[in-house]
Amino acid sequence: MNPIKAALTSVALLIGSTTSTAMAGLEFVRTNETPFISWTKYASLAEMAADVAGSFAGNISPAIPAKDSMFTDGVFFYKVTANGEGKAGQFNNLIVRYQSLADLNSNTGGEAFNMVGYGMYYDDEIIADNLTGRFLRTTRYFPDSPVTVGMYAYNSFADLVNNNAFYAGGFTNQTVAFDCKFWAADGKYYRTNVAGKTGNTTVTGVNVYNSSEDLYNGVVAETIPSKVGAPGSMRYLAVDSSLIPRTPCPGDIDGDGQVGASDLALLLSVWGVCPK
Prior knowledge:
This protein is mainly beta. The protein has helices at residues 45-50, 101-106, 157-161, 212-217, 261-269; strands at residues 26-32, 36-42, 55-64, 69-72, 77-81, 91-92, 94-98, 111-114, 120-121, 126-128, 135-139, 147-148, 150-154, 167-170, 176-177, 182-185, 188-197, 200-209, 222-225, 236-240. The longest helix has 9 residues, at 261-269. 37% of the residues are buried. A hairpin with a 4-residue loop joins strand 4 (69-72) and strand 5 (77-81). The strands form 6 sheets. A 4-stranded antiparallel sheet has the order 3-2-1-20.
């Protein structure tokens, strides 16, 4: 990990002072297959870990390569990918910000930000916590490293893009396989546990951490086991339910999520012979 010139302070600073409203109806969302072509949503972390009671949460078209990561700060949705300026075959150095999950899914209306320097190794991730306003970025010593050694921390999205980290720290009391995936919401941090050969792992559970400090130091608040064998390459989000695109159902003409009298009224209003 490259040294940070800015003065390093206690990991406790990662808890942050910038706050925003907690998300009310949190749902957990997971990609399916590689390249990523769709999302499945779950009402709880336990249901996602057990892969029960999941429902369709949107197609991704064009598909997103497995080397690209995705995250949300509770307002915007982001994709981390490569452009022509990064060192070929190693780095994602472009962050694309979207107004909605639907826009990310269709690659519509994204605003592109080139990261200063080489950016991030393929498969490395960015975590955004909507409560603290902080952004964390995983890092490895070299692109083929089997472990993630730690994270950089940033006070803002602008600092993230400009690689202006205020803290760089390695993980303690733990070994983190680079196939482990990270995400955050409402002050909680999450990390998958994986088993198997690097690059071909399966998820064995999800760790929950009460702060970024605990994440750095390996202080696990809870582990949700998983026995379904989900591929370690999947990506995860914790999203307010209002930000997940609605899935139309047959007969829902007005798009309110249910089939009812208003749908029948719309149908009757256009009843008759179709115009030629």
